Amino acid sequence: MIVSDDHEGLKKAVSETLPPAVWQRCYVHFLRNALDYLPRKADDDCMTERRWIYDRRTLEEAQRDVAAWLQKWQTRYAKLCAWVESNIEETFAFYRLPLQHHKHMKPPYMLERVNEAIKRRTHVVRIFPNEASGLRLIRAFAVAIHEDWIEATRYLNMDILVEHKKRVRFNCLDAA
After folding, report:
1. Whole-structure pTM over 0.70, yes or no?
2. Dmax of the chain from CA atoms?
3. 6, 83: one domain
4. Cβ(1)–Cβ(24) under 8 Å?
5. Residue 129 and residue 62 share a domain
6. Per-residue pLDDT for 85 more than 80?
7. CB 32 within 8 A of CB 12
8. Cα separation of 109 and 28, whole Å?
9. Are 8 and 90 in contact (CB under 8 A)?
């Protein structure tokens, strides 16, 4: 699963280089992009209710809430509602995963934390003698994070994902 902003080149690269991967538009970026379709003095409740949709347990619940949200705000913010209606499905890919993984895959916190940590390490040095030395520092830091994720902190329990895939496959066979 790849989570990113709505960058056409990145989406194309993902589909070409990782065909089995599922792409999801980052919902934080999605919410920021939504501000472009609102007047400056828009109702805060509108965006607050929009954020709540991502707290639903299933895709069906989220889609039902999106429909209710669209109906409520359509008359006041027609431009926003039209944009949300045509783009929101891109932010729902995490619903394909087990419920236990939702909180980890929905927001970009994991990636943001890594980027912030790299930024902190490189700002301490401030000036690198050359590009290769900067890359060595970043690479060493990335390796340390990778080892920590493998050995110490398990970010996602993949056993849950394996069981989820078995249930989904079994349910598909039952339906056929």
Report:
1. no
2. 63
3. yes
4. yes
5. no
6. yes
7. no
8. 10
9. no
How many folded domains does the chain comprise?
Answer: 2
CA atoms of 8 and 43, how far apart (whole Å): 31
Cβ contact 81:34 at 8 Å: no
Residue 81 has pLDDT above 60, yes or no: yes
Q: Give the model's confidence band at 174: pLDDT under 50 very low, under 70 low, under 90 confident, else very high.
A: low
Residue linked to tokens 């999801």: 24
**First-last CA distance in the chain:** 27
Going by C-alpha positions, the residue among 98, 102, 7 that lies closest to residue 53 is 102
Which residues, in sequence order, are CB contacts of 156 under 8 Å at separation 6+? 101, 104, 105
Tell whether 89 and 21 lie within a shared domain.
yes
Find the Cα–Cα–Cα–Cα dihedral 122, 128, 134, 137, rounded to 10°.
-60
Residue 86 belongs to domain spanning: 2-93
Q: Does residue 95 carry a pLDDT above 90?
A: no
pLDDT of residue 86: 95
Amino acid 80 reads L
Q: Tell me: pLDDT of 37 over 80.
A: yes
18 and 75 in a common domain: yes
